[in-house]
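Is nicotinamide-adenine-dinucleotide placement plausible here? Inputs below.
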Amino acid sequence: MARKLIAVIPGDGIGPEVIAQAVRLIERRKLPLDLWHLDLGADRYLKDGTTFPKDVADRIRNEASAVLLGALGDPRVPKLEHARDILFGLRFGFDLYANIRPVKALSDRVVPLKGRTKKDVDLVVFRENTEGLYVNMGGQFKRGTPDEIAINEDVNTRKGVERLIRAGFEHAKRRGKKTVHMADKSNAMAHAHELWHRVFFEVAKDYPGIEPKHVYVDALCLYMVQDPSPIEVVVTCNLFGDIVTDLGAALQGGLGVASSANVHASDPARVAMFEPVHGSAPPLAGKDLANPIASFLTVGMMLTHLGFPDEERRIEAACAKALDEAQCTRDVGGTLGTRAAADYILAQL
Ligand code: NAD
Ligand code: IPM
Ligand code: MN
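Reply from A.M.:
I modeled the complex. Tokens:
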């Protein structure tokens, strides 16, 4: 297999700590991969104003197979302009329209729901990743006065909605899943989410063995906590996907273990971006407290995408063992620091 290039952006806060462990993991596997380390994030922005330069974006688009991102967000940059340029430069700039976020518990020990086990928590959320309320269209008027107005437009295109829904059904078909849930608020958002509702049932006709199930997103949150076991695949818009995947992370043991992929699903040859669901967790930064499992599982998703699915299975099994045996960080009931938790998992591989 020809060697593949991975751009690595550790980012801010705990990002560099967990990505350092992810890089150790990748280097140990001796795969035909080259790493390209990028100095982008709050430190760089504060030093020389650089956020996400065009030449870097172009080289990623033309030469890299994947981007591995830690997290972005730093209290010294309160308006998060660097974070938006980099994160949305990747998601929007490369048209990575499917944000795939597995909600899969790897150990009974970390499932917080009474009477439930890991068998009950195994679903995946397909979050639309290029439109919705994230497009930054809108504005403020009469700012700072009693009459001020603030508007963020919610953009939903037929193309954008359809391709994300189709990606969810394709995933369900490949994995032999029997249902796809679509979560919206068509009861309140009669324009945008009527489109989601209509397109969902239209696309479903192309997948006869899979039952399309509509659910309002508020009720989905209820069902995910009451009994997530019947839920297999969820397709939803950008903002709802963001929110339900933090809820989902709680079901699998917290943000310390939640991974994600950002892909242009209809063309897997395009560069894709992989990141833990969590952010930069400023209170944990620099204290050897961050859980490296989310970034390890993220590397697993990336390696499957790059053609090494056995690697993901191994990584997942090693992380599951660490969780079962409480050889992990404090957020998931262990006593180890970031590096020691990573050491334990690496030793299992
Ligand atoms: P966060 O995900 O950083 O933290 C939320 C909670 O989860 C905190 O209690 C934190 O301690 C815990 N947590 C997160 N990752 C963990 C890990 N690996 N191990 C153990 N515990 C972990 O979310 P936040 O506090 O809302 O945001 C902090 C900053 O991160 C903000 O600037 C936000 O915009 C940014 N953010 C960035 C991304 C991204 O880059 N993709 C994602 C989410 C948030
Ligand atoms: C995530 C984050 C981002 C999002 C923020 C940092 C803009 O919460 O990746 O889940 O909302 O997409
Ligand atoms: Mn989020």
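Short version: The pocket of manganese (II) ion (ligand 3) is lined by residues 242, 246 (CB under 6 Å).
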